[in-house]
Amino acid sequence: MENKVYTAKDFSSDQEVRWCPGCGDYSILKQVQSVMPEINVPKEDIVFISGIGCSSRFPYYMETFGMHSIHGRATAIASGLKAARPDLSVWIITGDGDSLSIGGNHLIHLLRRNFDTNVLLFNNQIYGLTKGQYSPTSEKGKKTKSTPMGSIDHPFNPLALCMGADATFIARTMDRDPKHMREMLMRSNSHKGTSLLEIYQNCNVFNDGAFFSMTDKATKMNQTLFLEHEQPLVFGENKDKGIRLDGFKPIIVSLEDCSIDDLWVHDEKDRVKAGLLTRFFDADFPRPFGVFYSEDRPTYEDALVQQIDNAIEQKGQGNLDDLLKGSNTWTID
Amino acid sequence: MTQETVEKVVIFFAGDSGDGIQLTGSQFTNTAALYGNDLSTFPDFPAEIRAPQGTLAGVSGFQISFGSTEIFTPGDECDVLVVMNVAALKANLKRLKKGGAIILNTDGFDKRNLRLAGFADDENPLTDNSLADYRVSEMNVTKLTRECLVDVTLGVKEKDRCKNMFVLGFVYWMYNRSLEHTIDFLKQKFKNKPDVLEANTRVLKAGYNFANTCEISSSRFEVKPAKMASGTYRNIMGNQATAMGLIAASQQSGLDLFYGSYPITPASDILHELAKHKNFGVRSFQAEDEIAAISASIGASFGGALGVTATSGPGVALKGEAIGLAFMLELPLVIVNVQRGGPSTGLPTKTEQADLLQAMYGRNGEAPVPIISASTPSDCFEATLEACRIAIEHMTPVFFLSDGYIANGAEPWLFPQSKDLQSIKVPMTKKENTDYLPYKRDDKLVREWAIPGMSGFEHRVGGLEKENLTGNVSYDSSNHELMVKTRAEKVERIADFIPNQKLDAGSEKAKVLVLAWGSTYGAIKTAVKELLAEGYSVAHAHLRYINPFPKNLESLIRAYDKVLIPEINNGQLIKLIRDKYVIDAIPMNKIQGIPFEAREIKNRIIELHDGE
Q1: Three-state DSSP class for B6?
Q2: For residue B259, which residues of chain A lie inside 8 Å, CB to CB?
Q3: If contacts are CB pairs under 8 Å, which of residues 241-260 in chain B contact chain A?
Q4: Which of B78, B174, B323, B365 has the most CB atoms at less than 10 Å from its CB?
Q5: B32 touches B173 (CB < 8 A)
Q6: Could you report the per-residue pLDDT of B378-406, keeping only the tens digit for each?
Q7: What is the pLDDT of residue B217?
Q8: What pLDDT, on a 0 to 100 scale, did the predictor assign at position A159?
Q9: Does residue B233 belong to the interface with chain A, where contact is any CB pair within 8 Å?
Q10: Which helix (H) or strand (E) element contains residue B562?
Q11: B96 within 8 A of B81, measured Cβ to Cβ
Q12: Which DSSP category does B12 fall into?
């Protein structure tokens, strides 16, 4: 059968998009719609599942199959869908509150099971839909309506959490870098297993500028570190800084004092080093973007189908009459 | 030595929870079934896996009633009480009828055991004449078991684990049963442990021979096969029948079965059973929690499978929000609730019928869900199949209510053939349908189903209120009212597609109607049968469909002067009946974590009948 050629417009539903003007979600929606025609999956085989929150309205705007479900459970719903229908391309749309607070449990179990799904975690470090309370990724001391004296919660480090759950693919991008986001979406899609893409997304109403140090021209180059497989970790305005490893201790070095050959070379397959990168999470280190880690591990649904096939091979296709009869019967005349 | 023929026997096996009592009971059950007896069983075990040995809290029991006559309950009083220790005796002597037989392991009556069971230093039921009203057969089971295994190279602990086989062999002799079935079972169970197989088999035979030679029991009994409808039977437990009903529904509808569950007593055995049948394409999924279990099932249903989740009351509490979602999505979903004593963790291993109102009302907003209930272990099969049929054909979540008593109980089953099972029609939209609207309905008010993979049918569903027909999000106030009423009406119209309520016994002109649901069936059936034989004017109707009620239910119950509603709860069905029909039905409630006895029901009916 001939594959239909789609355009981004084919993935735009007839529903009016109703995020706040200036919301970072628009940029993500646009990139996702533009990536869809390139993943070579028939539109009817694509499903978007979301939980609750601003980001979770996303499926309504996609002209694919979709479900806007309940708070925190998109990951669990997608697990069942993928188990029942391994043939589908399943995308999970979730926010920091949805996936890390109320749905934290399901997220880690999705990752350890490694269902072949794509998680797009919109992180804006705030509760938007419930109007501005702090979220599990908000920084300590955050003043919000529910924390007028400042939050005393220690924030989650989402990617470190995901590494801890043995995720097979983790990456980070941001709403204000569409080109990079697009690249990361394609990488997420091509990963077989659960891919988790954290997207820094600006909530211009309740948490404007949370990531501006990483997106503003003036500070961006010193605050971000773009990861590329087999490339040394270089950053800074003039590409003049790098990360060197002293044992397992990362150190920021100036390339004036240090040869580029001595720098840490990024290896997506290295779990230990990926773990270290997820810990680049405070002001002292630049924030990494790109693919932290990528591993091939059998998916849950493949193993499930394999068990079914094996059971059929060993016992034959289930016969209902044999099942009903069981092994011990007696007859009364 | 005498040989007596008896019509019906009730045996209660009791011992420490590590004594293998459940296995002993189930082996005796299977053998009785193969002899053609009708039977009913009731396992009764503590919530702790291994409560402290020798204590009252650690007593595990298994009751079986079997006979040459029809049996509907595990029996009120026991004829025989088998006890492995003094705690088992103390906890269960009240079940034994006067003059009944006690088979006891004297080794379980030593100083330590007496102390653990709460006896004072100078007290011992073996010597204080307190068992004078019973026929007691004493034997030192531990000593005899060890002696029989003296040349077997097993540790003492492993040898002692065979004790239950000695007792089982003894009881087999008493009731003239062959050891064959149990030996076959042991061969299977220990096929990779020849020494354990040898030990168990030898002890089983030793118990049988001991009874034969020692004349410790003065009589031997014959229980003839029951006169049951002709056909081929098997033995079945409730949870097993539920699992089979789900597989049958999958086959009858052509939908893959996805079963998402989180382990919980007493529902877990459904998961265990289904996991064994992957060759039926069953996708069983042990989720991380109850919420994930139901959510995954909803996801599977969205993908075009038959999503099922099973749990017990506390699990349903967690699933509540997701049930509301499934209700809004209007997707097939079956929620099995094997009820147990509540509230909260309550009495996990004891039975109760106290989740009916939870099933009926336990959600936010207006979300009526059909409720189907099973009344006996084998009835779980058809009732489950029916729950699945309604879920699929009417595109709705459906509650299937069972309880610990019927889930773990067993009975003979005249099992059906697959060709005689009802088919299930899936309301899948036609590929050539060009104007598909996700929430357009047929005359049953059921929407057409389109699943991922169907080109041209892409659509979005969700928990937000939907615009009629399109399913798009809508906050329009009049649309909301329309949708709430439409969804409720859809569930009400299911009454057009279920059978009318029939009487199980008695006539439409009787004085007293006993109206009930669920596992009270056997006790009521027994009571009403006896009363009818004694000339009382009584009838019995047992509900399978609780929401919606059968269409003729109102006219049926209005014909009686008195309607008695016995329930293992504080009065839940009666609330629904009074609310719907404004009939002054009479409650009868037992809230002890144990089923009704037939005589309790009988006495209450007599009181009502003879004018209270």
Answers
A1: coil
A2: none
A3: 244, 247-248, 251, 256, 258, 260
A4: B78
A5: no
A6: 999 999 999 999 999 999 999 999 999 99
A7: 61
A8: 98
A9: yes
A10: strand B562-567
A11: yes
A12: E
Contacts of A321 in chain B (CB under 8 A): 417-418
Q: Enumerate residues 6+ apart whose C-beta is below 8 A from A148.
A: none
Q: Is the CB of B136 inside 8 Å of chain A's CB atoms?
A: no
Closest by CA to A70, choosing from B519, B322, B289, B299, is B322
Q: Could you tell me the end-to-end alpha-carbon distance of chain B, in angstroms, rounded to an integer? A: 49
Contact A81 B416 (CB under 8 A): no
* pLDDT at residue B213, rounded to an integer: 87
Interface of A with B in 63-122 (CB under 8 A): 63-71, 73, 76-85, 87-88, 105-106, 109
Provide the pLDDT for residue A79. 98
Scan for tokens 């969804």, then name that residue: B487
The residues that bridge with A195 in the sheet, in sequence order, are A118, A169
Is A311 in Cβ contact with B279 (below 8 Å)? Answer: yes
pLDDT at B310: 98
Tokens standing for residue B98:
């006067």
Does A70 sit within 8 Å of B295, measured CB to CB?
yes
CB B62 within 8 A of CB B13: yes
For A55, A130, A151, B259, the CA distances from A145, given in Å and listed in that order, are: 21, 11, 10, 42
Query: How many angstroms separate the CA atoms of B326 and A232, rounded?
Result: 50
CA distance B370 to B111: 56
Strands A46-50 and A89-95: parallel
- pLDDT digit string, tens, across residues B189-211: 999 999 999 999 999 999 999 99
**B residues 13-32 lying closer than 8 A (beta carbon) to A:** 30
The rounded radius of gyration (Å) of the Cα atoms in chain B is 26
Residue showing tokens 């929870």: B17
> Does ipTM surpass 0.90 in this model?
yes
Reported as a single tens digit per residue, the pLDDT across B144-167 is 999 999 999 899 999 999 999 999
Look at residues B88, B80, B123, B131 and name the one whose alpha carbon lies nearest to residue B107.
B88
Going by C-beta distance under 8 Å and a sequence separation of 6 or more, which residues neighbour residue B29? B39, B41, B64, B66, B235, B410
Cβ atoms B25, B41 nearer than 8 A: yes
Which residue in A has a C-alpha nearest to residue B459's C-alpha? A65
Alpha-carbon dihedral sign for residues A125, A278, A222, A55: negative
Q: Enumerate the residues of chain B whose CB falls inside 8 A of the CB of residue A46.
A: 452
The pLDDT of residue B122 is: 85
Residue type for position A45:
D
Handedness of CA B30, B32, B35, B38 (dihedral sign): negative
* DSSP, residue by residue, B453-483: T-TT---EEESS-B-TBT--B---HHHHHHH
Q: Is the pLDDT of residue A2 over 70?
A: no
CA B285, B291, B296, B301 torsion-angle sign: positive
Distance in angstroms (rounded) separating the CA atoms of residues A292 and A284: 19
What gap in Å lies between CA B596 and CA B593, rounded to an integer? Answer: 10
Helix (DSSP H) and strand (DSSP E) numbers for chain B: 20, 22
How much is the CA Rg of chain A, to the nearest whole Å? 23
Beta strands in chain A (DSSP E): 46-50, 65-68, 89-95, 117-123, 169-174, 195-200, 224-226, 234-235, 241-246, 249-254, 287-294, 329-332
**Chain B residues closer than 8 Å to A55 by CB:** none
Contacts 24+ apart (CB under 8 A), B115-122: B116/B52, B116/B53, B116/B54, B116/B55, B116/B87, B117/B54, B117/B55, B117/B56, B117/B85, B117/B86, B117/B87, B117/B90, B118/B56, B118/B90, B119/B86, B119/B90
Residue B221's beta-bridge partner residues?
Answer: B4
Name the one residue in this structure whose structure tokens are 């009874």: B211
Closest CA to B540 of B566, B578, B570: B566
Nearest CA in chain A to B307: A80
